[in-house]
Amino acid sequence: MNKLILDGKAVAQEIKSNLKKRVESLTEKGIVPCLATILVGDNPSSETYVRMKGNACEKIGIKSIRIQLPKDIQTEELIDAIQELNNDDAVHGILLQHPVPSHIDERKAFEAINLKKDVDGVTSAGYGQTALGFGEYPSCTPAAILNILKYYQITIEGKQAVVVGRSPILGKPVSALLLNENATVTTCHSKTANLPDILKQADIVVAAIGKPKFIQGDWLKDGCIVLDAGYNKGNIGDVDYESCYNVASAITPVPGGVGPVTIATLLKHTVDSAEKTLT
Amino acid sequence: MNKLILDGKAVAQEIKSNLKKRVESLTEKGIVPCLATILVGDNPSSETYVRMKGNACEKIGIKSIRIQLPKDIQTEELIDAIQELNNDDAVHGILLQHPVPSHIDERKAFEAINLKKDVDGVTSAGYGQTALGFGEYPSCTPAAILNILKYYQITIEGKQAVVVGRSPILGKPVSALLLNENATVTTCHSKTANLPDILKQADIVVAAIGKPKFIQGDWLKDGCIVLDAGYNKGNIGDVDYESCYNVASAITPVPGGVGPVTIATLLKHTVDSAEKTLT
């Protein structure tokens, strides 16, 4: 069987290909696209993500602001910081790095982000628009997964897609996006009784659980497409790559699969948002 | 096998049981709960629904206003009418009767409804909140289906639910509500390749297609639960009742199944909304 490694870097490259030009054109008009990232506490993985995003911004001329808040901050103080960015016309995208410390009401904080600057689709309003088919900024990882499928011209319509995970910024929106592309979508989670049986039916599998090497090759249908949105400690995905590789016809590696496309999508959304201030 | 006819009138009765008292209490405080229904054109089925809803309001003391607009009205005029109701403090719920004539941008009109008065959960913001688990007014038919399952103490968690249909006010939100109750949910639609095979796995089947007698008994698993949200011309549901009855362990009739619970849910949402003006 033809085996395809879905190369996220190639997809990211295509997404980024015209961004630099668009940023230049905006900058000439006096608008420097700007992404503000809020990091609460000092989680080392979050630090890494935020730094990677900042570097990626810099490379194409997007300004990145990093707001670092102490881990013992209260929800209201975090919301004040978000409001300040909402009101700052020089900021086009706001990203609150997930997860925040557990004493903070993350949902309340997400909801405080102005929809126009919600470039990672974390607000319920943004999610609702995405699910109903007219969202401008779907969450970046779900959008990245769709971008990979489209780049590799993998048919989605009429296929059975199984999404494992149902988080508000990953499992739910990727299910919605696949449904809107005419897949028949099953969303599974920790209470799913018979996950391997369900996965055995899937033409397209999205792993979004947050458990390293969780999905096993012998749960999958021969020739299926595997998209691994997991990114666990030590650069390990949610699928057991070796066993899944053997069964799948196409699979994303970790790292180098969904991750780079997520970042490219975030950059694109930020530039989109900056361009909208022109009109 | 024990065969259960899921009696929507009994469920509706329970939902309505304390509403009259709540309406009286509000009325004593000078607040008469009020539902405004907008009807565009003269579709006879829509006329019937609106009249049924009006009568149901009257019976428990909810004021109902009916705004009748000509079928050749433009989207912007419809939105003006919605805005007027948004701004009217005496109106607690706004219902735009679906469908509107095809030249009208129904989505744009739905989106104009103030979230606080969106008692049928038609806005994308309302949908987003429902799907993320904190919506106050999920669409009434999806909420009705959940109410029926709960009234009859049918376990949802861990079950495989298959929803046939993906409309923004029916298939999508009922999928979301079942997922939030820990079902494993598959959403099917016109592009689904192998519907009978998928239905054969389902413990809970929701029919929301709008095609009379579409779902056949021999597509279903023995002992499944069938919820028929269809309401086609001549009081005919989306499931072929006779053949499905034979296979199911529980089934909603049409009429007398989901319909009455939908109306009771609408009344409850209107009273909920009126009560919120007190605080």
UniProtKB/TrEMBL annotation, chains A, B:
GO cellular component terms given for this protein: cytosol
Biochemical pathway: One-carbon metabolism; tetrahydrofolate interconversion
Keywords of the record: Amino-acid biosynthesis, Histidine biosynthesis, Hydrolase, Methionine biosynthesis, Multifunctional enzyme, NADP, One-carbon metabolism, Oxidoreductase, Purine biosynthesis
The reaction(s) this protein catalyses: (6R)-5,10-methenyltetrahydrofolate + H2O = (6R)-10-formyltetrahydrofolate + H(+); (6R)-5,10-methylene-5,6,7,8-tetrahydrofolate + NADP(+) = (6R)-5,10-methenyltetrahydrofolate + NADPH
UniProt cross-references to Pfam families, sorted A to Z: THF_DHG_CYH (PF00763), THF_DHG_CYH_C (PF02882)
EC assignment: 1.5.1.5, 3.5.4.9
HAMAP family: THF_DHG_CYH
Function per UniProt: Catalyzes the oxidation of 5,10-methylenetetrahydrofolate to 5,10-methenyltetrahydrofolate and then the hydrolysis of 5,10-methenyltetrahydrofolate to 10-formyltetrahydrofolate.
Assembly: Homodimer.
Name under which the protein is recorded: Bifunctional protein FolD
